[in-house]
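Here is one chain, start to finish.
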Amino acid sequence: MTINNKDIYLNCNTTTRIVEVGGLTKLQLIDKMQQQNILVNELGKKLFAADTFTTSIHPYVLKTVELSVSDLGLPGGGVLTEIYRRANQLGLELCPLELGPYLRLGYLDQPEGFLDSQQQNQAPNGSITVASKILIENDNFPKGFYLRRINGELWLRGYVCDDQHVWDPNDRFIFVKQD
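Its structure:
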């Protein structure tokens, strides 16, 4: 029996977005986020400061899909390499790191997350992780960005994890979808 892998997530609870990316420097992105009262944690600031995080001079458009780890066909969760490999098998691609700030600027009505039920070493409730190439292979350097709204405040946050961290089946990721 042959299964078309690209159809697996089509019947799941996914959200697609069209996002215009590029055209601003890192400093201009930071300024725009400050104007929108978007907060950035220390790990997010560390990503912005990295020389390996670059932005495109020219604007371009990306189609993204947001889905859970379980929607990728990993009902028991998975480590980042498994999640990224599975997404690739389904025809999804990693996002450029610069998508995180642009997505945050465009997604101002993100639902509220919950503070009281978050456990340590897990993605926060209500967060969406932007699946992107890891800039530096170091467990103490941020792997990428995630979006979160907590107590009415919008956040673009960096996160760290090691290659053994198992993401929960309900954790949500954003990938680039090619047509």
